[in-house]
Every structure is written in C-alpha cells, then in structure tokens.
Amino acid sequence: MKKTFVLLVAAVSLVAGNAFGAFVAPTPEQIAAAANDPSLLTALLKDATPAQAAQIVKDIVVKVSEAKLSKKEEKKRVATLVKLAFAAFPADKANELAAELGKQMALIPKDSPGHRVVSIVQQTIRRHAGTSSGASFGKAFNPDIPPPPPITKGYEAQS
C-alpha cells in the first residue's frame, strides 16, 4: 500500500511539474538553430534559472563564434543573444545572470573561437543591464583580479 502511494505521489509530481512549466534543456539542434536565429533564444529560456540560462547562452555563443561569419555579423548576433537573455529575466536577476554568464564564459578554452567574444558579451551586459551587472560578469569571469585600490583624498595642501 505504502509503495503504491509513493508511486502515485511521484507520478502526480511529475505531471504537475510539466504542467506548471518545468525547465526543459534545449537539444543540440535547438542550440544550433538559435545560433542562426537569435530570436529563438527566448523560448529556450522559458522557466530557466539564471544558471541554466547562462549555460544555454554560452553554448549558443560558442556556436555563433564557430560559424564562418564576418566579425560584424558575429558581434551583432552575440550582442542580440545577450540582450535577449537579459530581457527574459526581471531586472532584479540581472546581476545573478551576469555572474552566472561570467562563470560559464570562463569555462570556454582560451584558444577556442568562443573565447574571442567574451569582451562583446561584457560590453553588451554593461550597455543593457548596467555597469554593476558588467562588474558581476567580470568578477565571475576572472575572480583572481584584485579590486582596485581605494581612491584617497588629497592632502589639505593639495586642495
């Protein structure tokens, strides 16, 4: 009896999770399609957490950078993907999404084509999500950089 009840609860939970919009990771085909058409990204991010969204964006950005595109087209697509990702989340999640995206972009090998678009990602974040989100991206991308020294006030004689 108890075993049947547990199975019933598990089945109801599974159905309820799908009915209420549980996140479904995109397939490699969907990632490739979004690399060609960034407008598909919004649907792929449905019900995703910032960490899941960052991984999806990173995977698509890598695909874009591997494509044989002009630098101008590559920059445009990467910027569009980042803008759409931040538009898919409420403003109060921007720093979290930026930090997660920084962590994901740091996983790209330095000698791969995907690594050359990191600056485009950070610039787009700064323009569209704010400088604090850009800083969150930078800290997560390269956590070993120490913070800048504090700005000191001048001496009385220098005023």
**Rough outline:** globular
Work out the strand percent.
Answer: under 5%
Q: Describe the sheet with the most strands.
A: none
Number of DSSP E strands: 0
What multimeric state do the chains show?
A: single chain
Structural classification: mainly alpha
Q: Which residues form runs of ≥5 with pLDDT under 50?
A: 5-19
Helix content: 55-70%
- Nearest-integer average pLDDT: 84
N-end to C-end Cα span: 83 Å
Number of domains: 1
Would you list the SSEs in sequence order as H and E? HHHHHHHH
How would you characterize this protein structure?
The chain has 159 residues and is mainly α. The protein has one domain (25-141). Helix content is 64%, strand content 0%. The protein is built from eight helices and no strands. The protein has helices spanning 2-19, 28-36, 41-44, 50-66, 71-87, 94-106, 118-129, 131-141. Helix 6 packs parallel to helix 8. The longest helix has 18 residues, at 2-19. It is globular. Mean pLDDT is 84; it is low at 5-19.
In short:
This protein is mainly alpha-helical. The protein is 64% helix and 0% strand.
Topology record:
Layout: H1 2-19, H2 28-36, H3 41-44, H4 50-66, H5 71-87, H6 94-106, H7 118-129, H8 131-141
Helix pairs in contact: 2-4, 4-5, 4-6, 5-7, 6-7, 6-8, 7-8
Which features characterize this protein?
about 160 residues, mainly alpha, globular
